Amino acid sequence: MIAIFSNLRLEAMEQETIQPISENLWWVIPRKLAGVRKPIAEELTELQTAGVQAIVSVMDDPSNLDLYQRANIPYLWLPIKGGTTPSQEQLQDLQNFVESQNNLGNGVAIHCTNGRRRTGTMLASYLICSGSSYNDAIKTIEGANPEIELRETQHNFLQELERVKQIT
C-alpha cells in the first residue's frame, strides 16, 4: 500500500513539474527550426498549431517515433547518447531533413529528453553547418533558450565543427 501511494505521489509530482510544451518550444530560426523537450502524445496538436510540422528526435531510444507515425508527422530519428555528440553522417541527415521540410513549408523541432543538451548541440551544429560561427551559434541558441546546458565535450565538438567548416 505504501509503495502504491509513493508511486502515485511520484507520478503526480513529475506531472506537476513538466513545463507546458508551448512554454518549452524555442525557435532558433523563426517558423523553420526549433528546440523542444520530448513531447507527449497530447501535445502534438499544440506543437503543430505552433508551426511544428516535422520532428527530429535525437534520443538514443525510439520511444516517441510511433507517436509521430500515428499522427502523420514527418520525423527523423538520429540516436545520440546523452552527453555525446553527433556523427558527420547524422549532421548531413539533419541538414537534408530540415531543408526538405522547410521547402515544404514545415517548421522542424529537434528534441531530446529535456531539450537542453543534445537538442542544443544539434541546433548549434545546424547553424554552424549553415555558415554561422561557433560564437554566433551559441549566442543564438542561448538567446532562444537561456536554460541550454551544453557539456564541455559538446562545446569542443562545436568549436571543432566550426574549424572544419572554415577549411572546407
From TrEMBL:
It comes from the Bacteria. It holds the Pfam family Tc-R-P. This is Protein phosphatase. One of its GO terms (molecular function) is hydrolase activity. The keyword Hydrolase applies. It comes from Nostoc sphaeroides CCNUC1. PANTHER family: TYROSINE SPECIFIC PROTEIN PHOSPHATASE AND DUAL SPECIFICITY PROTEIN PHOSPHATASE. Keywords: Hydrolase. Residues 88-156 form the Tyrosine specific protein phosphatases domain. Residues 24-167 form the Tyrosine-protein phosphatase domain.
